[in-house]
Amino acid sequence: MTDSAAALLDGLDDAQRVAAEALLGPVCVLAGAGTGKTRAITHRIAYGVAAGVYAPNRVMALTFTTRAASELRTRLRQLGTTGVAARTFHAAALSQLNYFWPIVVGGGLPGVLDGKGRLLAQAAERIRLRIDTATLRDVAADIEWRKVSELAIDDYERMLTPGPTGAAPRTPPGSLKPQQALDLHRAYEALKDERRQLDFEDVLLACAGMIEAEPSVAMHVREQYRFFVVDEYQDVSPLQQRLLDLWLGDRSDLCVVGDASQTIYSFAGATSDFLLDFPRRYPDAAVVRLEHNYRSSAPIVETANRLMRGRPGALTLRTRDPHDDVPARSNDARTGGSASAAGVAPDPQPTVAGYETDAAEAAAVAAELSARIQQGAKPQQFALLYRVNAQAAPLEAALNAAGVAYQVRGGARFFDLPEVRQAVMTLRAASLTVTDEPLFQSVSDVLRSLGWTLEPPQAAGSVRDRWESLNAIMGLLDDVPPGTTFRQFTEDLLARQAAQHEPTIAAVTLCTLHAAKGLEWDDVHIVGLGDGLVPIGYARTPTAVDEERRLLYVGVTRARRRLALSWSANAAGPREPSRFLEELGIRTERAEHASVS
After folding, report:
1. Sequence-distant (≥ 6) Cβ neighbours of residue 47 within 8 angstroms
2. Nearest alpha-carbon partner for 578 in 540, 527, 541
């Protein structure tokens, strides 16, 4: 082993190191929330390349979002490893289709739809079905679920047919009748075929079909990629698993990483069964458990453990021993545990508060955030999480009234903002000229020409919003490796833009519990924890309620230092606190001017 390869193992804890050194054969990494799974798998890949076990161009690292794929590529580049294919399943399949389609089928690949909404609306018109936008979205999700579950329309029809008990295994979307849903599925597929178009699921299906039908394609793909890593493996669907099996062939150099407790996309066809069954499928697999949580304080970790105790596949998280010599991450000085002898304040306990109305709950949370920010806390340290998008409205109103800057995750994308597009293009053009100036000066000179200043403007509104966007680009300089050139910085910025890997903005984040997956903040407020919202009202089966429990677990484990939970009785009708709150063992505080406890 070379010194450079050995150095890649420095700073890993014992379990992470075991995962990083298991380079060949099937490997299953069961990684709890905040346990450094991305660190472990990127160091594993980099170590395999540095040790000469992997040729980088023969490694495929798969994940489920472009942001996560971009993060993998960035971390690998920081470790000195380039040439590894870090992609989503869809991106990998689309790349292969683009290459093989002209050879196998002839002609160019059919166009890939950006979304199903417009074509579905046209299909509904064709069959004279009046349908609203919300139901169209639900039908699109239903089609995606059917396809990733590898169900033909005839199979779907059987699922809509009542059985001996009088109940059907699946309910049509919205208020549609079973026959209407079937007709719309068929009309959508027919219209798509007529126009020679593919949707995202077709990309996976076509790639899998081509590998199965054409031995030359299978041989070429398997020759290209020898070693596979799959992140967030608990989110894999039957269709994605089928494609992964085809990419592997009869080989077993596969490393999967996941946490059954974070399976929150079952409604979209994801299943943790493949993760939990991995040791059975591969009896010789190395199984590594990452359970030391480096993100959250001890009270938050204890809360998360109570929520998932006894659930299938649940890991028991532990906070890092403060005497452990493994370096903490630079952006998180708190590694859990009690106050040290140096006089650090003890970690605060999670809190629960109840309110009379949603508006009262939102006003109280906004007032607390405003006070904390005035005391010196940074807005980007806070997140407000909720179950459904409609819950954002009273929070936005309360934050506006309190003068607290916020951003809604899932709203306008950062790289789609006009000022950001202009800044990226201007930076790229300027970087083409060779300069000996320090990187900070080169970037700041360009952004100053676009209106950025060292100090923020005092006015609120669009002027301040523009400044925050440009300042977020400046903030990226804090994370670049030493020696980065101006051109390298702009190339990384372009890669971020392509992957929609957004930088941090000085604003409180509002987002759904689903959208919070993969993110973390110092201070997390989970609001609206009433029965009917968490668990959601339509979660009527034990399986559905378990999914809601996992969703709350994801929310809880986003918090590093502080966790506040709240609910409201709702003036529009009585609402009880979430059944999950009682299990957490946290005393509910009586909110001022509220009649609930």
Report:
1. 5, 8, 9, 20, 21, 23
2. 527
Q: Is 478 helix (H, G, I), strand (E, B) or coil?
A: helix
- Burial of residue 424 (CB within 10 Å: 0-12, 13-18, 19+) is middle
First to last CA, the chain: 61
- Residue 389 and residue 515 in contact, taking contact as beta carbons nearer than 8 Å: no
Q: Which residues contact 522 (CB under 8 A, 6 or more apart)?
A: 381, 382, 559, 560, 561, 562
Provide, rounded to the nearest whole percent, the portion of the chain with pLDDT above 90. 66
pLDDT digits (tens, 9 = 90+) for 576-589: 899 999 888 776 66
Element (DSSP H or E) covering residue 423? helix 418-431
Cβ–Cβ < 8 Å for 524, 271: no
Both tokens assigned to 499 = 């992957």
pLDDT in tens, 114-166: 999 999 999 999 999 998 887 898 899 999 999 999 999 999 999 999 888 77
Environment class of 220 (CB within 10 Å of its CB; exposed 0-12, middle 13-18, buried 19+) = middle
Taking CB atoms within 8 Å and a gap of at least 24, the contacts of 251-254 are 251/222, 251/226, 252/25, 252/26, 252/282, 252/284, 253/24, 253/25, 253/26, 253/226, 253/227, 253/228, 254/26, 254/27, 254/228, 254/229, 254/230, 254/282
CA distances from 433 to 279, 429, 489, 495, 572 (A): 54, 8, 13, 20, 62
If you count them, how many residues does the chain have? Answer: 597
Rg (CA), the chain: 25
Look at residues 527, 563, 581 and name the one whose alpha carbon lies nearest to residue 350: 563
Query: 241-273, pLDDT tens digit by residue?
Result: 999 999 999 999 999 999 999 999 998 899 999
Give yes or no for a contact between 488 and 428, defined as CB atoms under 8 angstroms apart: no
- At 305, is the secondary structure helix, strand, or coil? helix
For the segment 19-42, what is each residue's pLDDT rounded down to a tens digit?
Answer: 999 999 999 999 999 999 999 999
What proportions of the chain, in percent to the nearest 5, are helix, strand and coil?
A: 50, 15, 40
- Reduced to 3 states, what is the DSSP secondary structure of residue 445? helix
Residue 108 and residue 101 in contact, taking contact as beta carbons nearer than 8 Å: yes
Q: What is the 3-state secondary structure (H, E, C) of 6-52?
A: HHCCCCCCHHHHHHHHCCCCCEEEEECCCCCHHHHHHHHHHHHHHCC
Cα(108)–Cα(113) distance, integer angstroms: 15
**3-class secondary structure per residue, 76-91:** HHHCCCCCCEEEEHHH
Give the containing element (helix H, strand E) for 63: strand 59-63
Indicate the burial class of 333 (C-beta count within 10 angstroms; 0-12, 13-18, 19 or more). Answer: exposed
Beta-ladder partners of 351: 564
Say if CB 506 and CB 471 are below 8 A apart: yes
> Under a CB-based contact definition with an 8 Å cutoff, are residues 34 and 520 in contact?
yes
Cα–Cα dist 66/72, whole Å: 10
Tokens for 36, please give them: 């450094």
